[in-house]
Amino acid sequence: MLEGKALIEDTDMPVKMQIQAMASASEALDLYDVLDYKSIAAHMKKEFDKKYGGGWQCVVGSFWVFFTHSKGSFIYFTLETLNFLIFKGDSSPSAA
């Protein structure tokens, strides 16, 4: 496991899921090269889909994003030099 500590920037996720997200990121960084964002994100998405049901999305790297998510299902944090965003998409229609 990496020695770095994750810093939560924003979340509405239950604490147990927050811990799972950060542990999953740390595990992925141990398994993949730090620049292999695609594999890191895929690893985290697959873990969340398996543990909490399908529909999870994961973004890794340096990015700006605007998205809609299901209540209680999003976390944005940094670990080492990377930003991480994991959320479950909201299927309800957007207001016009």
Automatic annotation (TrEMBL):
Q: Which InterPro entries does this chain map to? A: DLC_sf, Dynein_light_chain_typ-1/2
Signal peptide bounds: none
Per the record, the major location class is: cytoplasm
The protein's GO terms of the molecular function aspect are: dynein intermediate chain binding
Q: Which GO terms describe its biological process?
A: microtubule-based process
The UniProt entry's GO CC annotations, sorted and at most eight, read: cytoplasmic dynein complex; microtubule
What Pfam families is this protein classified in? Dynein_light
Which keywords belong to this entry? Cytoplasm, Cytoskeleton, Dynein, Microtubule, Motor protein
Q: State the compartments where it is located.
A: Cytoplasm, Cytoskeleton
Which family does the similarity line name?
A: Belongs to the dynein light chain family.
What's the protein called, per UniProt? Dynein light chain
